[in-house]
Structure formats: C-alpha cells, structure tokens
Amino acid sequence: MLPKVLTIAGSDPSGGAGIQADLKVLAQFGVYGGAAVTALTRQTSAGVLGLFPLPAQWVLEQIRDVLWDLRPAVVKTGMLQQPAVISGLGRLWGDYVREGAAPALVVDPVLSSGTGVNLLVGGGLEAFRDDLLPITTVLTPNVPEAEALSGMPIRGIEDMAAAAEGLLQYGPTWVLLKGGHLPELADDRIVDLLISREERHWIWGKRTPGADLHGTGCTLASALAAGLAHGFSVPEAATKAVEWLRQRIGAPLFVGQGRGVVC
Ligand code: PLP
User: Fold this and answer.
1) In CA terms, which of 13, 45, 139, 261 is 20 to 30 Å from 213?
2) How far is the CA of 12 from the centre of ligand 1 (A)?
C-alpha cells in the first residue's frame, strides 16, 4: 500500500505551484496524493493573473469527503485563501481526531505569490493563529510569512530564531522557517531553521545566485509531507526535503515564458 497524503491547495494551471506541483512531487516520492481544491487561479509561469475562490462550504465538504475516505497519513495545506476555510478545517480536524485518527498536518501558510499577488483575504492571519497553528505538526513559513504571523521583524539569523520561537507559542509542534528571503549571508550561504520546544536544527547550504523560481514553497512542503508519510521523523523529513529542493533550485526547468520551476 502506498502511503497517502492529502493536499488542500489552489490550482495553478501552469503546473509550477499549487495542487499540480504538489501531486507531481508526491508522485516522485512514491506517495499517493489526493487533492482538495480551494480556489482556481489564472496563472502562467510569469505570475498570477486572477483568483476564483470556491465557496468555503464546498471546499470543506470536499475535505470532509476525502479525509474520511482516504484516511491519509499526512495532510498538507497550501493556499487556503479564506478565513472560513482555515477555521472550518480546524473544526473538521477536531471531529476527525476525536474519532481516533492521528494524521500529521503540514501547514504552508501561503499569504501572497512570489510576484506579490495577495492569496489570503482579510482575517486570514487571525484564523491561522487561532484555529490552525494549535493543531499543526510542521509550519513552513518563509521570512515574510513568519514576520506576518509572529508580528516580529526578521533581519538576520538571530531574528529568525526569535520569530520561530514566537510562532511555537501559537501551538505548532515544529516550525521550519525558510531563510531564502534573508539578505545575503557571507560566502553565499543560505540557512533554514527547524525548531521545536526541545530541538533546534540549522540546515545550512549554498545559495544558487539569481534564482527567482515559481512554486518552491509548495514543492518543499509536499516533499516534507511525503517524507513524513514514509515514516521519517520531522528532522529527517525536513532535512531531506530541504536538500532535495536546493538541488532542484540549482537545475530549474524553464517550461514557459516566465520564471523557472522545480518540478
Ligand atoms: N498559485 C498557487 C495556487 C499557490 O499556492 C502559490 C503559492 O503557494 C502560488 C501560486 C505562488 O507561487 P510563487 O510564490 O512561487 O509565485
């Protein structure tokens, strides 16, 4: 039996981000993927052109249907887009866990696209903090997302640790704070931080100069979800996912007229 992951995310018809990217990554890692769609986008490799949210109730019904049917080992969320979806998922999760299910929850707190289009409507940050972070196994913010959720500015690696600790106060078991948006570190180094209440792992690597790619956040969270579904611990799955993504960033695919992609 293949391990199973359910992704809850937006559709990117250009195939570099969102559910299309998630399903490709899950398949590459030998995981069966289900996908509940939160919103459609009009989008090319150059950026988001439009957003068409599905009614929140419809999104939550899709999730309920497939959660109880597939019984995935891991659920991964991407662009949830509406506070009613975020809070509704929190309630639904409570029902599911009360019945004895114990999937891991990987939350990629998507706020905006790499090209600056807003992908979360008003009230979304509060919904994340109040209803999703308390049940999250691994939260995977980039620097702007960690700043928005924690309310703390991040200018260097000391700030990264402080913001990650601030985010742990909202209840996730682990935070994987991605340092790719930090100002350049010495010697072209790059660092991500994985932190829990007991552990702290700095995952160092070499920056690929000039990389402006599409869909890196979605693919990292999916690779991490796949590793967890295969039974790796959070530190093992996170380190493998980060190292896999860094290799991909070094050899992106240029499939369209815009930015490169990694899957
Ligand atoms: N479209 C969807 C559906 C997404 O989930 C995301 C990001 O998570 C994006 C677009 C933006 O991707 P990028 O930041 O790589 O432009």
Assistant:
1) 139
2) 7
Q: Which two tokens stand for residue 163?
A: 């913001």
Q: Which residues pair with 51 in a beta bridge?
A: 41
In a domain, 228, yes or no: yes
Total count of domains within the chain: 1
Distance CA 213, CA 210 (A): 9
Q: Closest Cα partner for 19 from 239, 255, 221?
A: 221
Which pair of tokens denotes residue 28? 């590459």
For the CA of 11, the closest atom of ligand 1 is: 3
**What is the C-alpha separation between 227 and 193, in angstroms, rounded?**
18
The residue whose two tokens read 């009230």 is 123
For a mutational test of ligand 1's pocket, the pick from 11, 12, 263, i.e. the residue with the most ligand atoms closer than 8 A to its C-beta, is: 12
Please tell me the pTM assigned to this model: 0.97
Q: Which of 52, 61, 6 minimizes the C-alpha distance to 33?
A: 6
Does the C-beta of 35 come closer than 6 Å to ligand 1? no
Q: Residue 55 is encoded by which pair of tokens?
A: 């009614």
The DSSP bridge pattern shows strands 138-139 and 174-178 to be parallel
CA distance 150 to 165: 9
The CATH number linked to 159 is 3.40.1190.20
CA of 233 from ligand 1 middle (Å) equals: 27
Contacts of 66 (CB under 8 A, 6+ apart): 6, 34, 36
Condensed to tens digits (0 to 9), the pLDDT of residues 158-204 reads 999 999 999 999 999 999 999 999 987 888 899 999 999 999 999 99
